[in-house]
């Protein structure tokens, strides 16, 4: 795409499609709002230096006060070609895109509080049991130079098929927790079935809550 638009910074892997859930959330919003954008692919060891170079704000802070640089990050030149706006943090970016490009809204009027609770559930409860399963799979799909950086020097963890003893039991327990959360979420979404066959979080209107969930899936 033309460089006159939005640049999304994403993490490279060994598969052709994007894979990081938080970055997928922004990609889905960009596509839904039909905003022209291009992707810059980074290996994990490149992320901090690249984000510092383009003036991206830190997405968090360590306990000792040092900044943390994470993706997603966007650079928007649609609004001002002379002074591009650089943003980090998935929720900050989503709020910005909605405020700046309100067409095809992802926050219907009066829904922000409920959507915020839903997204919090997805991030803090629904995803948590998935991590012991997703992290090893993610590690396997990263380029070699990113693998050690991703696991921060910890030993690589194998998939359930290669585990034995206590590790296998822990893996099976993780899957049971995942199933429990999927069943609970299905029961919640099923409550919309009687509302004119609604199938998404807000019934029939696609919203930010749906992108948060679909990005994980």
TrEMBL record:
Tell me, what's a Pfam family for it? GST_N_2
UniProt xrefs under InterPro entries: Glutathione_S-Trfase_N, GST_UstS-like_C, Thioredoxin-like_sf
- The GST N-terminal domain covers which part of the protein? 10-105
Q: What is this protein called?
A: GST N-terminal domain-containing protein
Q: Where are the transmembrane segments?
A: none
